[in-house]
Amino acid sequence: MTAAPLFGCIEAGGTKFVLGVARDADTMLRTARVPTTTPAETLGAALAFFADAQAEWGAFDALGIAAFGPIVLDRSSPHWGTIAETPKRGWSGTDLVGPFARALACPVGFDTDVNGAVLAESLWGAAVGADIAVYVTVGTGIGGGALIEDRPVHGSRHPEMGHMLPRRHADDRDFAGTCPFHGDCLEGLASGPAIHARWGASLSELAADHPAHAIIAYYLAQLVVAQQALLSPRRIILGGGVLATPGLLDRVRHEAATLAGGYFGTGDYARLIVHPGLDDRAGLLGALALAQRACR
């Protein structure tokens, strides 16, 4: 009997790389976590992990890498597969694909971590059946991926949803924002570090009646309405550490409905805006989905 395909999976994050070996979404044979330190050290540890797995299970059919960005996704570019200019010290220009393609001698699927996540959610999670879906993570940064009729959105690079410029909340006029590029873009106002910078705590640590909850919900609701205006998604998935704050998702739904003013044909914001269905597995399963596509 022919063995099921063997896939390598990498969720390449700014703080850690999550590695996996899988047959399919229900059969993850091995996982490991590697701290994101220097490229040489981190990629070396990941290569050693896959070399050990290859010795045990045989050759990989494909590898998927769902990476923090910005990354180069244009296959016509000589820099395809690399990390572009990034605030992560030492990682700008790092070739993520090449070392694994050479060592494992297999096809490599490559995309952003959030594009990987929305792909995984469309296959196995909260966006199953949605022809247009968006995945946004709100944590140390804010990033978003979009899927339109089974294809992740790329374009000149890839979506940078965290860097949209929102309307300022009336009670949040004076904070300059934390983004080194744009100051008070969405990431500069509503990410975890931005919240801590002006209130000295995470959102979940602040009292339920603290004004920060309404302010952050207002900013995230603007992202929702922008997605409705631009993409008309059937599902918007909001994940990340900030969204673990009790009550925040409901606040965002309420604010989005208010801002939309009934215009976009969405009556049920509880159905439109949801938590991830795959929880913290979306990144690694996204890498698996990329690997599976690389085999086509």
Jot down its keywords.
five-stranded mixed β-sheet, 2 domains, alpha/beta, Nucleotidyltransferase, domain 5, 296 residues, single chain, globular, 9 helices
How would you explain this protein's 3D organization?
The chain is 34% helix and 20% strand. With 296 residues, it is an alpha/beta fold. The protein folds into two domains: 7-113, 2-Layer Sandwich (Nucleotidyltransferase, domain 5), CATH 3.30.420; 126-276, ATPase, nucleotide binding domain (Nucleotidyltransferase, domain 5). The strands form two sheets. The protein has a five-stranded mixed sheet with strand order 3-2-1-4-5. Strands 8-7-6-9-10 form a five-stranded mixed sheet, with helices on both faces. Strand 6 (132-138) and strand 7 form a beta hairpin. The mean pLDDT is 94.
Chart the SSEs and their pairings.
Blueprint: E1 7-12, E2 16-24, E3 27-35, H1 39-57, E4 62-67, H2 97-104, E5 108-112, H3 113-124, E6 132-138, E7 142-148, E8 151-152, H4 186-190, H5 192-199, H6 211-230, E9 235-239, H7 248-260, H8 269-272, E10 273-274, H9 282-294
Parallel strand pairs: 1-4, 4-5, 6-9, 9-10
Antiparallel strand pairs: 1-2, 2-3, 6-7, 7-8
Helix pairs in contact: 1-2, 3-9, 6-7
